[in-house]
Amino acid sequence: MFLTLQNNDFMIQSGKHLFFLFLFILFAILGNGQNIFDTENSKKFARYLFNTHQYHLAAVEYERILSISPPDTEISTFLLKSYRMGNICANSFKHIDALGMNRFFINDTIAREFLNLALTCNCCYETSHYEKALNSLGNSQQAFYRLGYYFFNQEQESLYRFNEENRNLLATNYPSVFTNIETMSEFRGKSPGLAMTMSALLPGSGKAYSGYWGDAVMSFLFVSSNAWLSYRGFSKKGTKSASGWIFGGVSLGFYMGNIWGSGRAAKTYNEVAYEKMYNEAKNSIYSHF
């Protein structure tokens, strides 16, 4: 009981000391007449939040600074970077409009950061703002962001045509991007119809054509083994053979499933291969942000 009271007294005394220490620091700051919320201190605090990857909080602070101070290229740039790095898409473009930042798209740094954000989010921005920012850049950068627009909006025909028409410009300044897009345009994939036809002629061959060799071997073994057991049953007892009908039915089921599965295997191969190429192209575009 006595120890408990002593512990309580110690905690109370410690709390008082911390409280007075807080008051002392506060009065010291106020006594020096320093405004911790002025623009310069706010910039330092916002930069601290950005450097420590607290992008949502950094964005809020940069928005506050822009709302109470004259236009600032550095602050506008870091606000756009905070939106992008924090993947803040839902309301970022509304805030950009509210702060009137589109007026400063004549600055190529701000314009480029806006375009980076637009491609990262791939939503919510006005096309007119994208075009306005695009016009502030040089020819090679315009080509890069035009290509990015087609890429992220899944406009494949425009993407491949633009990549080819601007071959020299893109291959010189963005070689990895150009190469990845060209690889996508040349991809032909596997034919589901051919895969199904092959498996109809030789069970499992369509899956082998699509690169699924394990499935191909299993399909061949299941169909052929059950077909052989069915043939054996019929050869011994004729049409009255129960095992002949059973194994024949199982073999037919595997045979039809093998044909359908071969078409699905070709489609899966195409989807996986295309997704891999798409991700490589996307990463090469992001590497230039």
Give a quick precis of the structure.
Helix content is 79%, strand content 0%. By secondary structure, the chain is mostly helical.
Report what the structure shows.
This protein is an all-alpha fold and about 290 residues long. It has helices at about 1-30, 40-50, 55-70, 75-85, 90-100, 110-120, 125-135, 140-150, 155-165, 165-175, 175-185, 190-200, 205-210, 215-235, 240-285.
Could you list some keywords that capture this structure?
289 residues; disordered N terminus; elongated; mainly alpha
Sheet of most strands: none
Order of helices and strands: HHHHHHHHHHHHHHH
Instruction: Provide the helix percentage.
Output: over 70%
SS elements, strand count: 0
Percent in strands: under 5%
Average pLDDT: 85
Number of helices: 15
Low-pLDDT segments: 1-7, 23-34
State the separation between the terminal residues, measured CA to CA.
Answer: 66 Å
Q: Estimate the global geometry from the Cα principal axes.
A: elongated
Radius of gyration: 33 Å
- Oligomer category: single chain
SSE topology sketch:
Elements: H1 2-31, H2 39-51, H3 55-68, H4 73-85, H5 92-98, H6 108-121, H7 127-134, H8 139-152, H9 156-165, H10 167-173, H11 175-186, H12 192-201, H13 205-209, H14 213-237, H15 242-286
